[in-house]
Design goal:
The protein is built from 14 helices and 12 strands. It is 37% helix and 15% strand. α8 links the parallel β6 and β7. By secondary structure, the chain is of the alpha/beta class. The longest helix is centred in the middle third of the chain and has 17 residues.
Length: 320
């Protein structure tokens, strides 16, 4: 046990998890948990982290100003896989190390993707809403089996989706900035351009980090280029899809349905979108299974001791 090093845990879910608390305290005795369950940002975040040498953070935004106010901070370990809330260049400049492991929640998110695809194609959510409203109407849906599924971003989670789709005998196409010939060959995945993926896919699922190259990637023009009657799933990051354009296309029927676990603003600011009958909205729960929470928490604990500069960690910058 390291009784000297001061550790701060900003994450509310980590702080209230008895197993993760016990395992962290088994390594470090001087730990400050976010027991108040407060969403930390700005000055409050700096005050909470003040004096800490190591920190476990989740969705808190760590930018240049925050790092400049924390001269003692030497390690930030990420509870979760997304790094879009951390200024990695500012970390690197100040010599602050990053603890991060990609893909630790991949099975949890991938299961939600497959479930959403089935729900959207079969119309189960819309049928449930009608039944609750007192209307008995049998909706004619479509099977996932044999459909073309397009995966935008074939990193950890994208690959897991491919594996889970195998029993459905889908045609799978993928678009990624990197090439994975061995994986593609093993699972029969066709690498294609983004334009072709959108034009040919019955199900489009997004698995990208949010950065300057992906923000607004699926804009109005690209959404309009999707195959008529297709469905869109975003369990990655808000800000990649133009939500206003999506609402218009859902309203016109050009896109048959969508399922989002992430939004540009969280909670989402557009009640009309989330109330649409062919839109499934969940509150960023893709990684919120007990198994994924333990995996992410243990990875964050390990990251306190195995951290390195962000530039030295494979996949830390560009892979979700």
């Amino acid at each position: 046990m390291n009784s000297q090093t001061r550790v701060a845990v900003t994450s509310r879910s980590f702080s209230k998890h008895p197993v993760l608390r016990a395992e962290l305290l088994g390594r470090y005795s001087n730990v400050r948990f976010n027991d108040g369950g407060v969403a930390l940002s700005g000055d409050a975040l700096v005050a909470f982290l003040g004096g800490a040498v190591k920190a476990i953070t989740a969705l808190e935004r760590l930018d240049e100003q925050v790092f400049a106010s924390l001269p003692n901070l030497r390690v930030v370990s990420k509870y979760g896989v997304g790094l879009d809330t951390i200024d990695l260049q500012a970390m690197e400049k100040r010599g602050i190390l990053l603890g991060w492991r990609g893909g630790v929640n991949r099975r949890s998110v991938a299961e939600m993707v497959v479930a959403a695809a089935i729900d959207l194609l079969h119309g189960t959510v819309a049928a449930n809403q009608q039944l609750r409203a007192g209307r008995w109407k049998q909706i004619v849906g479509r099977q996932l089996s044999g459909r073309t599924v397009g995966i935008i971003g074939c990193g950890h989670i994208g690959k897991e989706v491919v594996a889970l789709l195998q029993p459905f005998d889908c045609r799978i196409v993928a678009h990624d900035m990197l090439d994975f010939p061995e994986f593609y060959g093993r699972f029969g995945v066709e690498p294609v351009s983004l334009e072709r993926l959108l034009a040919e896919s019955d199900v489009v699922t997004v698995h990208l980090p949010l950065d300057s190259s992906t923000a607004g990637l699926l804009d109005a023009a690209r959404l309009s280029a999707m195959k008529k009657g297709s469905v869109l799933i975003n369990m990655a990051r808000g800000g990649i899809v133009d939500e206003a354009a999506l609402k218009r296309l859902l309203g016109s029927g050009a896109i048959a349905g969508a399922a989002f676990d992430v939004f540009h603003e969280e909670p989402p600011a557009d009640p009309e979108l989330i109330s649409m009958p062919d839109f499934i909205a969940t509150p960023h729960i893709g990684g919120s299974t007990e198994e994924a929470i333990l995996a992410m928490g243990r990875a964050a604990i390990d990251g306190l001791d195995s951290a390195d500069l962000p530039s030295r960690i494979p996949g830390a910058v560009k892979r979700h």
